[in-house]
Every structure is written in structure tokens, then in C-alpha cells.
Amino acid sequence: MNISSLLQGIASFAWIGFIGILVTISVRASRKQAIGGLGTAAIVLVVVALLLTTVGAGIVFIEPDELAVVVTVLGEGGIRPDPLLSGLHWIIPFAERVERYPKVNQNYTMSSTPDEGSVSGDDSIQVRTKDGQQVYIDATVLYAVDPNKVVQLYSTWRFEYEDQLVRTQARGVIREVASQYGVEEIVSTKRAEMEQQITDQLLEIFSENNLIMRDFVLRNIRFSDEYAAAVEQKQISEQQAQQAAFVVEQKKQEAEQARQVAQGAADAAVIAAKGEAEALLIQAQAQAEANLVIAQSLTPELVQYQYVQKLAPNVQTIFIPSGNQFILPLPGSAAIGQ
Question: How far is 26 from 29, CA to CA, in rounded Å?
Fold first, then answer.
């Protein structure tokens, strides 16, 4: 409770006491009883009540989150050029009054959801887009009273600025800007651009009308039922097309994988065949070289020696036809006998 309210409360009790004393005096006078000191008490109470009422009417306490405009109610009338900020202030009792404005941020919401917006029921903005589609936009405007222009605000709008300025201008600007875009642009590629354009226009309008634009929030965009059904069907078709393309790509990958496996097997077979051929070639070359070495190293004596070596070790005598010398003398011996 501020001091102004306290003084006015005490003044009210003083007035009640004064009235009570007047009633008592009237009752005693009708009975021809002595009034005593009641007259003095009545005078004191009425003086105190008048004084407290006057002081209470002149002292004004402005809350920290408020601004106040002082209006003259007597004479020609008028408005003080400077607003009252938070704290205690003195105004001319009964000749001036204060009109209070919130200093904190305010918001005005227009929504299709009941009891969510500033107006009950569906308060969304209906917009006809550039391509002829009907959309419904939910939005919130955040703003504040300009402390340096609150006197001008009172002079121009009084307390009707929310309905007649904020609501009217916001809905008009949203319709005007959104109608410049197609429905696909609003919901996807150009949504941020549209939101920024609305914000810029409202900033200028609010500044010209003694308000401060804090922010604009594009809350939701809703289509008509017919267009929403068409969009849903289009999305289903696109998903089906994407699924079919995925299946085709998967089959291509499987075919490519099988081709690569077959190519790998063929390459492996070719490599194996080449390896075997090269091995046989190397073996043949080695055998030929060995035969060449053996052929170069053969002599009649060596052949005869090898032949004898192949005979059984226990053979002592070999019979040959008459006149056919088969066994030649070995080196180091005269002949092989009988």
C-alpha cells in the first residue's frame, strides 16, 4: 500500500467518525440532552478528514512498471507536457488526475486456437496469396509504450491503441505483405523474408504512433482443408516416387555388385591361367636348360657307365650275341669278362 492510499484510508475513517458524531449530536439535540465536547470533536474530525482527503488526492504514487500522464480536469483542461515516472509525485488536488500506462512489454496475439489469442475464438488473419490460395496466419506482436512519447500517445489514442492501432495495423500489414507471395513461398523459401518485411513495416508504423515495436512472431500458417488435402496427396506421391527410385537404385547397385563379383572371378581365372602358363613355361625352360646341360656333359664313357650303374648290383656276367660288342671296356680296366 502506498502513502496516497494510506492517507485516503485514514481520511475515510475520519469522515466516518465525523458522520457518527453528527448523528450523535442530532440524537442528543432531539432529546434535549447536552452535547458537551461533541461539537469540538466534529470540527476536529472534519478538518482532519478534509486535510487528509486533500493531501491524499494530491499525492500520487507511480509504480516502477508504470508511466503516468497528468490531465487537468478543471478550467480549459490540458495535459502536462512531461509524464510522471515511478515514485511519489504531487498534483493539484481535485484539479488534476493521472492516467496510467504500462511501461513493460505487451503482446497482442491473433490465433485460430480458442482462448489463446487476445480475442476469444478464431482470430487468425485470412490471407489470399499471390497464386489465389487461402491461408490462415497466427501471429503475435510484441510492443511497448514509448516513455518519451506517452503524452502524445494519450493525446492521440487515449487507451484505444491496442484495438485501433496494434490490431488494425498488424492485420492490415500481414494481409498486404503475404498477398505478394505464393503459398509455397510463404511456407518454405520466403517465410523468413516475409516475416522480416512485416516487422520492418510495423516498426515504422508503431514509431509514428508513439509505440515501440519489440518483435513480430509468425506463429503458424494454416491452409484451407482442400489445399491441405492436395498437399498431403502430393507428399504421398512424392514419397512413393522416392521409394520407387530407391528400389531402382538398389537393384542397380545389386546388379553392379554382381557384375563386379563376376568380373573379379573372371579376372582371377585369367590371372590363375596366366600363372599356370607362366609356371609351365618356366618349368619347360628349366627342363630344356637342364637337358642342354646334360646333353653337353654326355660322353660315350659316361653313357656306358650310367648303363652299367643301372644294372642289378649282383650281375657278374652278360651274354651278348656273337660278333656284337655291346659292352665297351670301362675306363681303367681292360675289358669286362665273362
Answer: 5
- Pick from 101, 120, 145: which residue ends a domain? 101
Residues 118 and 219 in one domain: yes
**Residue 246: domain span:** 231-297
Q: What is the pLDDT of residue 332?
A: 43
Q: How do residues 221-269 score in pLDDT, each as one tens digit?
A: 988 777 766 665 666 667 677 777 887 888 888 888 888 888 888 777 7
* 112 lies in the same domain as 218: yes
| Domain total in the chain | 4
Whole-angstrom Cα distance, residue 37 to residue 303? 174
Distance (Å, rounded) from C-alpha 195 to C-alpha 218?
7
Cα R_g (the chain), whole angstroms: 58
Count the neighbouring beta carbons within 10 Å of the beta carbon of residue 68.
Answer: 24
The last residue of one of the domains, among 223, 250, 268, is 223
Q: Is 69 within 8 Å of 97 (Cβ atoms)?
A: no
> CA triplet 154, 157, 159: central angle to 5 degrees?
75
User: Is residue 106 within 8 Å of residue 118, measured between CB atoms?
Assistant: no
End-to-end CA distance of the chain: 156
